[in-house]
Amino acid sequence: MRARRRIEPGPGQESVWDYPRPPRLERSDRHVRVTAGDVVVADSHAAWRVLETSHPPVFYVPAADVAAGVLTPTGRTSYCEFKGVAEYWTVLDLPDAAWSYPRPSPGYAPMAGAVAFYPALLSCTVDGEAVRPQAGGFYGGWITDGVVGPFKGEPGTLGW
């Protein structure tokens, strides 16, 4: 299935169609904050962004910037052809609301142990802007005004 027409980015925006495949890992000094109700789950200015063609960025927060005691391993795993085996976490009482790569593939080694959070299940912000979740139950991309699609996960994108 073909992707819908690429949305041309405006000033200060990125197109997910300019992201590479395999994905690129880059450090971000943007303020990333994750909350569950009134509980601050994570707060960082040193997250990693993973940028992959057709996907909104996924922010991975260093474990040191995740609040103590909010994560419990679920025992669930999945496999990414690029990053390796992911392990999933319950965040407070929300099962599988986060994941990490404890031993990622060599190209992603710097993000070992950093935690990504599903914005469909938690409140996530980037520099104070509320994140919109990527469509689809599997994907965990963070959509902000700074990124344009169309995005993988929306109806009709399974074959991308």
TrEMBL record:
Domain of life per record: Bacteria
InterPro entries: DUF427, DUF427_sf
Location of the region described as Disordered in the Swiss-Prot/TrEMBL record: 1-22
DUF427 domain residues: 32-119
Official protein name in the record: DUF427 domain-containing protein
Organism of this sequence: uncultured Mycobacteriales bacterium
Upper classification of the organism: Bacteria, Bacillati, Actinomycetota, Actinomycetes, Mycobacteriales
